Records
---
Amino acid sequence: MNMNLGLNTPSAVPKKEEDDLKIRDLYHRPLCDLRVSVIDQCNFRCSYCMPQDHCAEQYTFLKKDQWLTFPQIERLVRMFAKLGVEKVRLTGGEPLLRPGLSTLIRKLKKIPGLKDLALTTNGSLLYRDARKLRKAGLNRITVSLDTLDAEMFRQINGHRGTLERVLDGIRECEDAGYECIKINVVLQKNIGHRRILDLVRYFKGRKPILRFIEYMDVGNCNHWNPAAVVPASEIVDLINEHFPIEPVESNYYGEVASRYQFADGEGEVGFITSITQPFCRTCTRSRLSADGKMYTCLFANHGIDMRSFLDQDVSDDELLNIIQSAWQKRDDRYSELRAKPATPRKNLPKIEMFQIGG
Ligand code: SAM
Ligand code: SF4
Ligand code: SF4
């Protein structure tokens, strides 16, 4: 059964012919990409994700023996690839805290059908790992960085790490020859306009592409409130006033960022408008938590325990069936329904951002 979402943000790019062969959910969305969280721990305590007060008091991180092992991750990714997933992104928590990550990357690179392997990191350990990960086969990297103000940097991340280290790490990525480097900036009211423009000035004309992300109500512990959200349109206008930009088409079906290029040809910026212009209509993404739960939405209340199936030694065919039937039952569109009072499951506890990695 296919339902019509009737949403307002169609992707500018038509789907590819290969997409017709992919498995589809209830809204006819193909399964194209997978995010794999390799660890829930983090060396930062960002206020919008894992605020210090909440996490120190109420959350028990997974123990090492609860993590999916590398062979288990490899097997599950192989199954997702058989079902049409071409892009995988490693994330966390902070993925560079997982020992031996290059080994995992080398293994995943060999999986037939997988065309693109990316990673999202807070950048604090890139000075150490950027080249090693690139050499292992990582294609693209995204670094989260909200400000170039050293004091504010530490205020946002719970007084951990230093801005200099992250900037060094980004330079290492530029030198290491990544195919694409993105910089994620979460937009919150406390990041003033001057700091946004500082970021634009700093990265404009360089390889890293800035992407501004509206502050989302993920998880339960960030005390989200709509008043703290800065609409991306406000930042589009701000940047355009100082550095003229013009919209460009999406690179591919299901791309979440709205892209703009600088009119002087010095690169581009992107905006992820999960709050003001949700993009559930083209959401093609599945997620695996570090302990092996499969989620079909960032705002899910429940995941399928894939690890228990691995522990029961189920066959590849059974795994394929489990993933396929989960996707085919998928009806998630939380961001589209956010504003509606009668949204089902709305008040149930959600998975935390640091458990599935964005
Ligand atoms: N620790 C890594 C990092 O920070 O890049 C990877 C995991 S982190 C959960 C993935 C992305 O989610 C980061 O770019 C982070 O800025 C973003 N994020 C976390 N909480 C968010 C929120 N409440 N709203 C929007 N983006 C958020
Ligand atoms: Fe850690 Fe990333 Fe969450 Fe910040 S956003 S607390 S770096 S997992
Ligand atoms: Fe996808 Fe869920 Fe986000 Fe909608 S709310 S875009 S379905 S992850």
---
Amino acid sequence: MKRIGILTSGGDCPGLNATIRGVAKASYGMMDCEIVGILDGFQGLINDQTIEMKPKDFSGILTRGGTILGTHRTPFKKMRKIEEDGIDKVKNMIETYHKRNLDCIVCLGGAGTHKNANLLREEGLNVIGLPKTIDNDIYGTDITFGFHTAVDIATEVIDRIHTTADSHDRVMIIEIMGNKAGWLTLYSGVAGGADVILIPEIPYDEEVVLEALRKRHSKGKNFSIIVMAEGAKSIEEAKMSKKEYKEYREKLPFPAVSYRLADVINKTGLETRVTIPGHQQRGGSPTAYDRVIATKFGVYAAKLIRDEQFGMTVSLKCDSVVATPLSEVAGLSKPVPIDNNLIKTGRLIGLNFGDDL
Ligand code: F6P
């Protein structure tokens, strides 16, 4: 009999429940097991908040957004810190693991979750990771579940903005999530037919952006669509240290990077508006692709548990689901390479990336 703990940590995304379901259904089918739900991510492990789950708990959740287990952000840098509450988080997590007689913990999460999972591995626990995030920035996997759904949602927003941009002869900036990675912006920008795409990996030159807009307008195009990552920076901003940038942002009168750029464009006489779809990009039901990849990932995790191949995370490499050691993934990220094929493709159809290539 194996007792499998399962938790979801970090920002939620569509596909978490589909993955949980994949792990559970395949585990029940492959081995004699019990599944223990750990509530609210690593917080549940720290505070011993767990529930004994039954097969029926995993029915009807394939299409459900969010996570049936709840989630929480528990920063890696605070894991070994004893804070005011006096709680030794790592000690508590190890105690819960043993108290609940767990044979392993499956951790569904992003980059931060993978660092925490690796910490638990280093502490001698049996851990398996599963890569979720709309940001698609987890090292070692081509795709994370949640990404495709977010691309679809962001693309739908861009499509809708197109029509109103056209009616009003406006420049519209749509600010897309993704933290420090530009995957979501790049994919939704191309899918949504953006004119300018600004991603963190390519610091933008304001003059180049303005020139691209002027050129469009001189050709008789009455509107322009800029799809901009929340982490995009101008060339000047990209030169700042982390501290300098933080202080600079705090002093700016704008709530988000897109408003600062909108202000620059508005001053040239081109009427500009901003749309920030925000957490909508993380909400609702997963797309068919995400349901499939979530199921494949979940089932693969169950195989790893059956074979007692712990200390691994599940990855997609060239369309094959494989296991990658957590130690190789933890602490690394996956920015968009500037020679990425989709960037090259975009350039060939005249897309502007804010640089003068
Ligand atoms: O990591 C997913 C993500 O949605 C990022 O794209 C975004 O920067 C961040 O989470 C937002 O976090 P929160 O939900 O804590 O505001």
---
Amino acid sequence: MTHAAITGWGKCLPPAVLTNQDLSTILDTDDEWVVSRTGIRERRISHVGLEELAYVASMRALAAAGVEGSSIDLIVFGTCSHDDQVPNMASGIQARIGAQPAAALDINTACTSFLYGLSIANALIRTGVVRRALVIGAELISPFMDWTDRDVAVLFGDGAAAVVLEATDKEEGVLAEKLGCFGESRDILCVQGMGGRYANHGVLYGVTRWQFEGQEIFKKAVAGMSGACQDTLARLNLKPDDIDLVVPHQANLRIIEAVARKTHVPMERVFVNIHRYGNMSAATVAIALCEAIEEGRVGAGSLLMLPGFGGGLSYSAHVVRWGNRTTALRTSDIELPPNERCALELIQDCLRRKTQASERGTAKQPFAGL
Ligand code: ACO
């Protein structure tokens, strides 16, 4: 039977670091509040567009796998913060890595997009439609963030990562997954201003209103991720002790701890990097997986659990059998263009745009009646 091994991985973090202390200069917040409620200490703010972040991550993943872009026959790009809706993001990566005429599709299930993308690529490889796929999780939240709203501005960051999947006869890659959605609760996690509903209603693109019911999201995230983990373990007839490492979505350290408790996995076997990056939505698990490998937490034959949760409210859990490769075959010399500006300067642009819109009256009560 054909399986889909993960043979390459690469991440791209923009260099500008925005600390909690930085945020406290523009918002009524402080490091103690953010760290104690979320575990987040800093996050990255990008000076380039989403495609650039994803391209660098993709080139690093291809190099790690030791393959050329021209050998890829499927690209799945998970994101909810597209540079453009049309043409899609995946086709831009296809053109830049030289993967013509690979199939190229975007997928948006918010924070779980990379994980849903993993399922799609896994299924298409296992059914023989394609043999080698690139799955990307990338997010450029900063231009869409409402930097005047402390409830959400402290939670997110920018980043990208990608993995290469290849057909194999060995029992590697995704062994089982659970995908689901609490659609009836979708309104508790909502970013207004990013869709066609707002076109021609005086809402400037990039001016958003984040409608989050944090405590309800918290409960649903714990229920969704821990339920999906239990379901996936049961499908494979595994016990929590069989899992070598959990690499979860990182929205809040307390959510991660609650999921670990409910799944009966000690925190020593849970990978955490939320303190460095905050929540990077679709990029989160992809980057955490790269760092778990880089830090030697993933061994040959390791059994991994990847729980995810996001807008929708989508949830998921994948059990992945790692192969023999735990070090990159090659490295890529592709880098981001240099950045001259600090993170606060980068987000000042977003604030300025919103202020100008208000002054012109175009963003006055922009969401009234919508
Ligand atoms: N700094 C200081 N105070 C703040 C901040 C801030 N950045 N944000 C909110 N507060 C205040 C609130 O105004 C409130 O004040 P009040 O009591 O005077 O009204 C107080 O802190 C407590 O707010 P709560 O919402 O009760 O805080 P809570 O402990 O629930 O933590 C949080 C909020 C961190 C958002 C939490 O609910 C959470 O993590 N929720 C789920 C994660 C989430 O929503 N992530 C977004 C992405 S979704 C995803 O990826 C799955």
---
Amino acid sequence: MRIELVQEVEAKSALLVLIDGSGTTPKYNAPTGENAQIDSAIEHTPFLLKNGEAFYTVGSKGQALLVCGIKKNGLSDTESIRRSLGKGLKLARKHELKEVTICLPHKEDPDEIAMIQLAAETCNLSLYEYKKYLSDKGNPSYLDRISIVCSSNSKDLQEALNRGIVLSDCTNITRDLVNEPSIDLYPETLAQKVQELGKSFGFDVQVFDEKQCLEMNMHAFLAVGKASTRAPRLIVMRWIGGSNMEPIGLVGKGVTYDTGGLSLKPTASMLRMKSDMTGSAVVIGTMCALARLKSKKNVVGVVAACENSVAGNAFMPGDILQSKNGKTIEIRNTDAEGRLTLADAICHAIREEHANKIIDIATLTGAVKVALGDQVAGAVTTDDNLYKSLSEASTKADEQFWQLPINQDYRDLNNSEIADISNLGRDGLAGTISAACFVEAFTEGLPWLHLDIAGVAYNHNNHDYIPKGGSGRVVRSLYHMVEALD
Ligand code: BES
Ligand code: ZN
Ligand code: ZN
């Protein structure tokens, strides 16, 4: 699929128009000559087009029209624009249109740059499909070209288009990784894929096998992967954007399947545990975006990839493990495995890669779904500046986060009498926060932000521009955040 900017509409292309649903004076960015046709289609609509509604009709010259409603005066509600546009594009596919030209709400708006980026993002995000394992992959020629009408061929607008395409492409890389079943995506194959991505986009990748991880004393990480026939891999990605600064550390949970280990999960909860590597997929997608957009930042991504499986040699509740940074950990539940892998991965990012701050991203607790649902990710930090950066970045991406509290009472939930720390908090008490406190114990006092994405990682239903399956959420926020950090 090609996405490009145009100032003229080709006669054979279908038109997609976003209109303010007040029904009176729709404003849209269409080239003269097309307006009358669109106006007449809207006028003949026997209902008031509401926010989020879209319909398909044929204009007077036989041209296909997709009319999508947005909120009255709702141009600042960019999430609603993304949703309407996503609906319209899916309608275009349903009607098997080959080419579509998007007429954005308005031409004169000073923020045309942001609107073009948003439109480009939405094209790739809403039309994403995961068909790798389907025998019938459908007709690939539908919607092979999307044009976006803009006011000039300025460099700024071209760059906005490119940014939108790259950010959504990289989000789709994340989605592909999450959607791939564990029979094919396991630590070794994940590492191979990252190596390929690094080669394609120009970031450096180093992979460590089990023996090398053992030499680096990563006993907490290795314990989790011990019972699997698929050996763990530590994957390190580096993007050096030019400055002499120490890198920002992005650490993603990379459990390629989580059975729960000996503290086995019930059948229903295990079903979607192929997605327990979403944190790593988010880091990988973000590294691709940083490299493709030639970020000026220095960033290191660390993923301790393993499979939490069951066998006679599995790690056991009651075990005491020594992590890479020397702290001992009492295992009280082998299903609280993500924090063990993060502990060693974070230590690696700090001690071997000299990260000066840590952002960890993980499908860490079911409790975050109970607290915040599946649209809002949980954030825990002791650094107000990091949270502020996240908050600003998430506005650009139209993604949602909510900060949860952290204090000594929560940290004490992880106290153990026989080891330095326990991997389990107290039943029913703030599971997301106690998990975050465990992770914090391995950050060595550096600025740190923790994102629990267990709720938002996976979509159970199709959403206007986020299809069922791996959602790809957080990649765009994380990219914007890294770009804004010093
Ligand atoms: N991978 C799960 C968390 C999860 C739950 C991700 C639902 C996606 C959807 C994690 O490893 C886990 O099992 N956490 C336990 C922790 C508990 C044992 C303290 C949980 O949330 O039940
Ligand atoms: Zn688990
Ligand atoms: Zn897990």
